[in-house]
Amino acid sequence: MADREGTLAWLFLMPSVVYILALVALPFLLAIGYSLSDVTAGDPSFDWVGTRNFQRVFEDPVFWRSLGNTFVFTLISMALIVVLGKVLANILVADFRGKWVVRFLVLLPWTTPVALSSIAWLWMLDSIFSPIDWVLRQLGLIEGNMYWLGEPGLAMASVIAVHVWRLTPLAAVIMVAGLVAIPRDLDEAARVDGAGYWRRMFEVTIPLVLPVAAVAALFGAIFTFTDMAVVDVLTNGGPNNATQVLTSWAFFRGIDGGDVGQGAAIALFLFPLLLAAAIAILRAVRRLEVR
Amino acid sequence: MTNRRDFLRTTGALAVGAMLAGCASEEDAGPGGPTGAPGGAPAETFEEPSKKLSGGLSILLWSHFVPSHDAWFDKFARDWGSKTGVDVKVDHIDQAQITTRIAAEISAGQGHDMIQFIAPLSQFEPSVLDLKDLTDEASKRWGTQLELCQKSSFNPSTGKFYAYSPGWVPDPGNYRKSLWEPAGFPNGPASWDDLLKGGGEIKKSKNVQMGLGMSQEIDSNMVLRGLMWTHGASIQDANERVILNSPETVQAVEFMAKLFKESMTNEVFSWNAASNNQGLVAGKMSYIVNSISAWRTSQGTNPQVADDVHFVPALRGPAGQFAAQHVLYNWIVPKHAANPDAAKEFLLHYTSNFKAATYASKLYDFCSFAERTPELNGWLASDPFGSNPPDKLKLLSDATKWSVNIGYPGPANTAEGEIFNTFVIPNMFARVARGEQSAAESVAAATSQATAVFDKWRAQGLVGKG
């Protein structure tokens, strides 16, 4: 058996293939089926309705708002995650006293369950007892309360900030792998040639880390795009659907509202968008690697 | 100096503390909360099943806002099982997860034999048993079922009792006497106009706001429907036709915008279900609409605030005095249930002993068959759980007169449920209060959303033809 590489390869691959088929492909096909049917939470029987669910989704202004919000959240979060991830990665690779404590603290947001950390942020952003407001008041920067989750702009900023806070450590760890893979002699050669810190950063380090940064961006985008926990805990999509995203709207329509068909139609919009984003980023990575 | 172990220990303790606090129920009685009068619990009786029972019975229900209720219920169910020879298993989960769980169990075609939720479960009608026989039997034994409970468990367009509704919870106004007395309302507001005058005065003179939410959460949904009904507006009429776009709705929306400007802050757009409770208990709100559980919480955590919190019935408006129920118990028996006979017999036994549920929930749960809780008015007149003054809850004796179902004046149908869960009404009010739309525009937009939802469920045969 050990000599039959083909069989062995399939044996090793099978668990992953089965896992992907059972937990990704099957639910995906099921979602397509649901979106073309009149399946409800109370009636799982399948009756073909064609594209009716999609037509209703298109007529729903909340869907379009959710779609726009999803893009805004994802793009802004992705940009911030990559930039802050790079900054954090530089700190993580530096050698200093107490670096293990710093690394532990930096990774804490990523290792904390998202529901738990979102609840902690809910308290931090509370309309009455927000400690952030208290600090700002003590500093004389505000007089009353900010109502972080009650103003559309602040609520969106809060949701983005929590996404960035919890995903930046992941991006940082990915980028640390890229940073330590850069041959030291390149950096040293640049130093000998008289390049300063910023020149080395922008002309040596960042170009070499870009493929890895793209992977970090891809992860950040996927995790933000497909997450509903942060929105669900912090704002429930409010105020007035200002922070509603596709995932939360699909859930409210499909499960809480009982219209599984329409919920599935909304959720399916995640797929082409994520696919396009993944293809674009992976192609960019490949191009950078070739260069 | 703090060493690494101390640091990890502290961090761990903080994390566990945060987790426990996060898991605490919305309206937990809290440490030191009222534990009830010793020996005051009513005696329970055994309702003999009409036939020999056997097998198992799995029950899924919410984790009650008053934790003492769950301890009572679990023992009550086990005792019934041991007397009837049924192996009873009870699971409690957070109420926010129940509809998701029901949808999963129905989709899988297996799961619990009976499930309870705190709002109408009309969306599951096609997959649950018709409980007409159970409701008829209960009515035969204990008299007429409260109308709001019947309208929240019966679909007139299909003639099916998709649920059995033995209980409900009223939703009175909660006000701080020390704030309302100087404002000229020693007994709290009686009408929406009183609320506007008194609430505005308190905000101006004491800088304490009112807490009526316009957020994407349950309490906002409740209070704003109450405001609409008292102005003669509603989403549907008694025949399930959408009538939201009316001058009465516009008037209610305009009134709320004015009330917001004079007595509230932007925090009401950010609220979750616990926010108004927290604000009241912390002494930061002059008036909220909620059940008695927030006040019960403060009896344990802040007795001074508890003594200062008083209650008023639903506020009067130009078209009457209405409030939505706070909680509406729906028990469903899915078609896949293995032991429906045991489920129905248990529910009859449970209804028969509802006074024990009322007592264990510290007068939170009310029965839909008034005859089953003859002690209720006495308890409300002299609270066995330490109210000061003891008759603070007496006004709830009349709660059935001003409480109505979600969907009033029609039934709590599936369309009303989806509109409730997608927050069409709170957002209709919020857009105007924030100055984003005129009242007429906002009502028209909400009507368009509501009509689409009604049309969809009407096509499925679950909503009347109007």
TrEMBL record, chain A:
TM stretches of this protein: 12-36, 71-93, 100-124, 154-183, 204-225, 264-285
UniProt keyword annotation of Cell membrane present: yes
Membrane topology, record value: Multi-pass membrane protein
Keywords: Cell membrane, Membrane, Transmembrane, Transmembrane helix, Transport
Highest taxon in the source lineage: Bacteria
Membrane keyword on record: yes
Subcellular location: Cell membrane
CDD domains assigned: TM_PBP2 (cd06261)
InterPro entries, per database record: MetI-like (IPR000515), MetI-like_sf (IPR035906)
Domain called ABC transmembrane type-1: residue spans: 67-281
Gene3D superfamilies: MetI-like
Gene Ontology CC: one annotated term: plasma membrane
An individual GO BP term: transmembrane transport
Residue ranges that the Swiss-Prot or TrEMBL entry lists as coiled coil: none
PROSITE patterns: ABC_TM1
Chief localization: membrane
Family: Belongs to the binding-protein-dependent transport system permease family.
Protein name: Sugar ABC transporter permease
Organism encoding this protein: Actinoplanes aureus
From TrEMBL, chain B:
Keyword presence, NADP: no
InterPro entries associated with the record: Bact_solute-bd_prot1, SBP, TAT_signal
Annotated stretches, region: Disordered: 26-49
Keyword set includes Transport: yes
PROSITE patterns xrefs: PROKAR_LIPOPROTEIN, TAT
Compositional bias ranges of the Gly residues kind: 30-39
Keyword tags: Signal, Transport
Similarity remark: Belongs to the bacterial solute-binding protein 1 family.
Protein name, entry field: Extracellular solute-binding protein
Species the sequence originates in: Actinoplanes aureus
